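Dear colleagues,

As part of the handover before I leave the project, I'm documenting each prediction I ran so the next person doesn't have to rerun anything. This entry is a single chain, and its sequence is reproduced below.
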Amino acid sequence: MKIFLILTCLVSFAACDQKGSVEGTHQRSKAEEETKIDLQNENLKSKSEKMELDLQNRNRFYKGVSGEFTGAFSVNNSSFKILVSMNPSIHVMEPNRVRSLEEIQDDLNNLSLISQVSVTDAKDNVGIGGCVYDKTKADINTGKIQFASSECPLRYVISLSNNVNQSKDLSLKLFSGEETKIQTLHLQAYSKYGSNYTAVLRRKQ
């Protein structure tokens, strides 16, 4: 009888240990899964914050070059005036929540400049040409902005200063927030017909 009771207790203890072991394994798996999810969420949040910062910096750059700039140039002893206007393609808001990566990437893809160039004869102020350039992307690393369109015979390269060598430094200052507005631009125009020219542009507004 005693032997039977001892065997019964041993079997009960073994069953309890096995049950406890299964429950412990389940709890560990659940905890590991929760930790994995938390880590993924943290990684997504960190990536989202970095992308938002990049978006805000790029938006600061585009706002810093936005506005109207005027200048003058000569071709074949004829004088002309030029007006260049640039504006951001979208209005970027300061985020008040953690946005999805897709939302931020969409803004990064769509953020660009809508630009227009108008040329008039300096003597009689009659317009002789102009083009609109959509979705112009700036090269933040060099501070260069290139206007090009299959519908326009002229291609323009804009630098963020009348001294081309300063363009990169000014670009980085805009990007970081050290500068807020660009006052002077250097324009290089390349024509399909060979009438290339340069001009210094100063902010009108």
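The radius of gyration is 32 Å. The first strand starts at residue 67 and ends at 75.

All the best with the project,
I.
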